DNA sequence: TCCGGAAATGAAAAGCTTTTCATAACCATC
DNA sequence: GATGGTTATGAAAAGCTTTTCATTTCCGGA
């Protein structure tokens, strides 16, 4: 069933049917009704492919994730927000997750190009030379989420990783902690990883506290890796630090779990502050003190920004930094 | 830049370029090389829309979610698994979340039809009359996830909700509990909601334990709703039940949090068993005893099933019931 | 040298819309 | 009743591929 057949049955021309469907011009009520009746009874649905081919616009946005797994990060709510915004504007989502594999990521960019998506929301992590080569003259507008890049200079929406991490660490210092450990995300992740670490280090150094390499470890976002990192720190330190800043809530919970299993108490024996404010952070036992950086907001902003670019050409602000907030709960103890 | 222009520049016909791109027929090495060179330097990418229009196949699967929010359920890992399987088979994903809104859900089905997706993975929840009308003669293969429907009789992959819930409750009974409360998911969700409830009730009745309406409440998947449900139970019961079966881990954690805040201990004062085995369940404090129903497996099976249908016509098994396992941890105390 | 068949290539149709341009119909005004 | 201007409709091009069918080229064998 195609538009031609509908036209035939309704005894009108193809153009007329098109006009009825799209409401793009006046059609005599009586004719319109006849066409609609035919559409109704045949269950005809226009073929978007043909339409998009001719209009040269797909009303589809590619969402490219470069995440370990959807349930290991707070990305779920960001995606939700994106999905809500785009739905409202009549865009569909083409979804892809490269799982940190740069090769695959490039494949997805090529795919998006072939599928002629109108724009891309890109949760970037790491760039290879190939990335630069391909993206340098990429013909589709891209908005980066969670990371910016000086070379490519795409519009972006980012978390305030550096300052928030610094703030979190300073909070620990303000509570009297001096020996503060750190569990980080992979450094290859320039956003969450490196920036949060820099924030932590800055806070320490600025307060004349020195970094203890034995009290620092790196995880891979997974809960388990948080536990392992904690374990290795405990092994390496003759006396454990009184507090830790952990770069993601999931790893923080892994770390806390490990602590608790060892019979250490939180926050009496060691204090923890996390990052993300994952939806379960506030109901953990003890409720986790952490940095909230509104993921819904990030998703909404990013989608809005892309839409803006799609409609005009130049957005007003090319970079949006999300607000953050330290959620003080019960995983940190004040010591003197 | 289109295939015509590439052909012109390489001094060959359109057909030849097409053949080079798709490797669909022999082309003289020398010609092939020339065409590839042109493609390389022009950065030409074939237009999928045209290809799909002509081939009448989009290599795209619609994934329709009917969930409250991506980060409130264990769906993340299911989607991950789906995404992995489909990627491997060369399919793209068109993603949509109807947020429980039946109207929107139908719109998405229409959209998928217009976009000509090859198949649909449908996380169904509730059906309206309209659903039946539309889906009765829907022209695209659908695999349902998490729920089956006797009328539409789509192939499906489901959790063993009833038996697992029964099992969980029986476990509580085996540990000596007699007064067992229940916090359920919305009943409108026929799968997670009603089935799990039925399992709970069956276990109770089969063991000559009677249901106490004051010890039962309903949440909406959210963590907070679990807390509220717990609160209302506590308010209504002069002496609280010794244990509860909670239909989702997230709500279970909300409930536990509320309990802990009230100064009640888990499991000494009240035992809890959840459902889902969300990735954080095992690091909660105390680690949550819960039902694991492998979400990755469900996603993989569903995607495989759909692919099978897409390639042949009739799948061997039309319904797959996922295994479950009771993960015994520390949120249940044996009482005598 | 010629013939037959295989291999390589090209022309054109088909897939389904939208949209431009032309035509037809209609109405009101002078 | 002719004219001018809307308004409604249709024909056909354009958008970019794939694929069928026809044609050309090539090669080996007689």
TrEMBL record, chains A, B:
<keyword id="KW-0804">Transcription</keyword>
<keyword id="KW-0238">DNA-binding</keyword>
<dbReference type="GO" id="GO:0000976">
    <property type="term" value="F:transcription cis-regulatory region binding"/>
</dbReference>
<dbReference type="InterPro" id="IPR001387">
    <property type="entry name" value="Cro/C1-type_HTH"/>
</dbReference>
<keyword id="KW-0805">Transcription regulation</keyword>
<dbReference type="InterPro" id="IPR028082">
    <property type="entry name" value="Peripla_BP_I"/>
</dbReference>
<dbReference type="GO" id="GO:0003700">
    <property type="term" value="F:DNA-binding transcription factor activity"/>
</dbReference>
<dbReference type="Pfam" id="PF13377">
    <property type="entry name" value="Peripla_BP_3"/>
</dbReference>
<protein>
    <submittedName>
        <fullName>LacI family transcriptional regulator</fullName>
    </submittedName>
</protein>
<feature type="domain" description="HTH cro/C1-type">
    <location>
        <begin position="1"/>
        <end position="45"/>
    </location>
</feature>
<dbReference type="Pfam" id="PF00356">
    <property type="entry name" value="LacI"/>
</dbReference>
<dbReference type="InterPro" id="IPR046335">
    <property type="entry name" value="LacI/GalR-like_sensor"/>
</dbReference>
<dbReference type="InterPro" id="IPR010982">
    <property type="entry name" value="Lambda_DNA-bd_dom_sf"/>
</dbReference>
<feature type="domain" description="HTH lacI-type">
    <location>
        <begin position="1"/>
        <end position="55"/>
    </location>
</feature>
<dbReference type="InterPro" id="IPR000843">
    <property type="entry name" value="HTH_LacI"/>
</dbReference>
């Amino acid at each position: 069933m195609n538009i031609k057949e509908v036209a035939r049955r309704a005894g009108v021309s193809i153009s007329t049917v098109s006009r009825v469907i799209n409401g793009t011009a006046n059609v005599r009520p009586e004719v319109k009704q006849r066409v609609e009746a035919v559409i109704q009874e045949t269950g005809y649905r226009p073929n978007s492919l043909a339409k998009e081919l001719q209009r040269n616009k797909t009303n589809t946005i590619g969402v490219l994730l470069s995440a370990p797994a959807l349930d290991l990060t707070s990305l779920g709510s960001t995606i939700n927000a994106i999905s809500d915004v785009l739905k409202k504007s009549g865009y569909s989502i083409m979804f892809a997750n490269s799982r940190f594999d740069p090769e695959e990521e490039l494949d997805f960019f090529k795919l998006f190009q072939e599928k002629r998506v109108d724009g891309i929301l890109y949760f970037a992590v790491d760039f290879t030379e190939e990335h630069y080569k391909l993206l340098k003259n990429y013909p589709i507008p891209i908005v980066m989420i969670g990371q910016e890049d000086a070379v490519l200079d795409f519009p972006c929406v980012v978390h305030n990783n550096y300052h928030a991490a610094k703030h979190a660490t300073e909070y620990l210092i303000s509570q009297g902690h001096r020996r503060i450990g750190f569990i980080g995300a992979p450094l290859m992740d320039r956003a969450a990883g490196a920036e949060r670490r820099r924030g932590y280090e800055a806070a320490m150094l600025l307060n004349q506290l020195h970094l203890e390499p034995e009290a620092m470890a790196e995880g891979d976002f997974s809960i388990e890796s948080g536990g392992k990192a904690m374990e290795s720190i405990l092994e390496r330190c003759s006396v454990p630090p009184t507090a830790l800043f952990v770069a993601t809530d999931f790893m923080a919970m892994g770390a806390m779990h490990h602590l608790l299993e060892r019979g250490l108490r939180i926050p009496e024996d060691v204090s923890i502050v996390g990052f993300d404010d994952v939806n379960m952070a506030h109901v953990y036992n003890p409720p986790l003190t952490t940095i909230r950086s509104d993921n819904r907001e990030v998703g909404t902003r990013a989608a809005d920004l892309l839409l803006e670019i799609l409609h005009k050409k130049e957005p007003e602000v090319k970079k949006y930094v999300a607000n953050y907030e330290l959620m003080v709960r019960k995983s940190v103890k004040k010591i003197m």
